[in-house]
Write a structure and sequence with these properties.
Structural class: alpha/beta
Distance between the termini: 5 Å
Strand content: 15-25%
Pathway: Cell wall biogenesis; peptidoglycan biosynthesis
Number of strands: 24
CATH class of the largest domain: Alpha Beta
Number of domains: 2
Function: Cell wall formation. Adds enolpyruvyl to UDP-N-acetylglucosamine.
CATH superfamily of the largest domain: Enolpyruvate transferase domain
EC number: 2.5.1.7
Keywords: Cell cycle, Cell division, Cell shape, Cell wall biogenesis/degradation, Cytoplasm, Peptidoglycan synthesis, Pyruvate, Transferase
Strand order of the largest sheet: 22-23-1-24
Largest sheet: 4 strands, mixed
Bound molecules: uridine-diphosphate-N-acetylglucosamine, phosphoenolpyruvate
Family: Belongs to the EPSP synthase family. MurA subfamily.
């Protein structure tokens, strides 16, 4: 297993390019299954999850070519096996996104249950409930969701779907299914994340009729057929937010090219309150900071977009660890998303967890500092928080199990090195 070796203490300066968003690219690769015509996606990030998704759709009989420049050409004209087997699904929960498009285009789908993951149990009951409201008959047997249309039906039927909670991939599954359903679908309590809007824009470019994306009520008028399109994947706000926290913590001055400040309001507001300077600039975001010890720790609660993203909680916590004062962080989305805490504590952080709440005593108020050690990455964003902590810790930090990081960050260590960090990958 690859590891990262980081020698902490260097500021970050210069420019870095923000890649396309993992959480937009994955549903958009699935959206290409909705048509027999070729689809071209631009700005697709080089990530393990994207490789897994390509493997999954190729296994269905789809042709998918990926170029070095981030272009992926998908032709689902030959799709002959509407199935997502466990072997390909087990490492990536987003494979549940195949369910909606397969059912909508073929009237049947067999998709393995994705299972839990380190951050929580992550059930898919709402996906099943919503698609059932559109008429799908879904049984769960032997670890698979087996879905089909009722006898005599040729298409799903539009419905009003109100989920029990806001679900991002659930909303995406319903959007894709509804695009080809008969009649109108109304999604109440829909997720409003920028990746939902990006997917909706792609579907509209394919001929879908969608209104209200980006709000909590989305209306979709189903059409008979969708056609091919070319779509550029939106910039990754979580990758951008991770770099913002890294620069705020280490100190320095960095421009994030293609970063979308308008997708990061909640995080940027907290960074400003902490004392970093963050501005939207032409084509990106600029962050300037004197470093973590000059910053004030900030409390926050994770909530659905436009609130503070759960996918940024761990990275901001690393910054809080070295700031002044005490902050309370509440994780409301996933029940087990403090796995990074014990590892940060191994680096010298002072954090107490009680259920959903973590209280961080910033080290700048004390005489202590983070000190390098070997730590274990437990999930994607936990890995990123350990990298940030390693960048500011005294001495050497080794982050083990970075396959989690590779799932969702495109060349992270090369990008950080380009900004002046002392970081290298140790191959297994
Ligand atoms: C590929 C992708 O886009 N992943 C993102 C997506 O995950 P994902 O779409 O899986 O997360 P959801 O928005 O669905 O989850 C929100 C909450 O609802 C619960 N829930 C969800 C569906 C369901 O059927 N039943 C149920 O109980 C989940 O366990 C969780 O507690 O949104 C999360 C919340 O912003 C992010 O952390 C992930 O990075
Ligand atoms: C939890 C995440 O992703 P996934 O839903 O793919 O596990 C994430 O991107 O932080």
């Amino acid at each position: 297993m690859d590891k990262l070796l980081i020698r902490g203490g260097r500021p970050l300066n210069g420019e870095v390019l923000v890649s396309g968003a993992k959480n937009a690219a994955l549903p958009e690769l699935c959206a290409a299954l909705l048509t027999a015509e070729p689809v071209t996606l631009l700005n697709v990030p080089q990530l393990q999850d994207v490789s897994t998704m390509l493997k999954l759709i190729r296994n269905m009989g789809v042709s998918a070519e990926r170029s070095q420049d981030g272009t992926v050409r998908i032709d689902a004209g030959g799709l002959n096996t509407p199935e997502a087997p466990y072997e390909l699904v087990k490492t990536m929960r987003a494979s549940v996104l195949a369910l909606g498009p397969l059912l909508a285009r073929f009237g049947e789908a067999t998709v393995s249950l994705p299972g839990g993951c380190a951050i929580g149990s992550r059930p898919v009951d709402q996906h099943i409930k919503g698609l059932a409201a559109m008429g799908a008959e879904i049984v769960v047997e032997h670890g698979y969701m087996i879905a089909k249309l009722p006898a005599g039906w040729t298409r799903l039927r539009g419905a009003r779907i109100t989920t029990d909670m806001v679900t991002v991939t659930g909303t995406e599954n319903f959007l894709m299914a509804a695009a080809l359903a008969e009649g109108e679908t109304v999604l109440e309590n829909a997720a409003q994340e920028p990746e939902i809007s990006d997917l909706a824009e792609m579907l509209i470019a394919m001929g879908a009729r969608i209104e209200g994306h980006g709000t909590s009520r989305i209306r979709i008028q189903g059409v008979d057929q969708l056609h091919g399109c070319t779509h550029r994947v939106v910039a990754d706000r979580i990758e951008a937010g991770t770099f913002l926290c890294a620069v705020a913590a280490t100190g320095g001055d960095v421009v994030l090219r293609h970063g979308r400040a308008d997708h990061l309001d909640a995080v940027i507001e907290k960074l400003r309150e902490a004392g970093a300077t963050v501005q939207a600039v032409d084509g990106g975001i600029r962050v300037h900071s004197a470093g973590g010890a000059t910053l004030k720790a900030q409390g926050f609660r994770t909530t659905e977009y436009p609130g503070f993203p759960t996918d940024m909680q761990a990275q901001f916590m690393a910054l809080n660890c070295i700031a002044q004062g005490t902050a309370t962080v509440t994780e409301t989305i996933f029940e087990n998303r403090f796995m990074h805490v014990n590892e940060l504590v191994r680096l010298g952080a002072r954090i107490q967890v009680d259920g959903k709440v973590a209280v961080i005593e910033g080290l700048a108020s004390t005489s202590a500092r983070l000190s390098g050690a070997t730590v274990m990455a437990t999930d994607l964003r936990a890995s990123a928080s350990l990298v940030i902590a390693g960048l500011v810790a005294d001495g050497e930090t080794v982050v083990d199990r970075i396959y989690h990081l590779d799932r969702g960050y495109d060349c992270m260590e090369a990008k950080l090195r380009g900004l002046g960090a002392d970081i290298e990958r140790m191959k297994a």
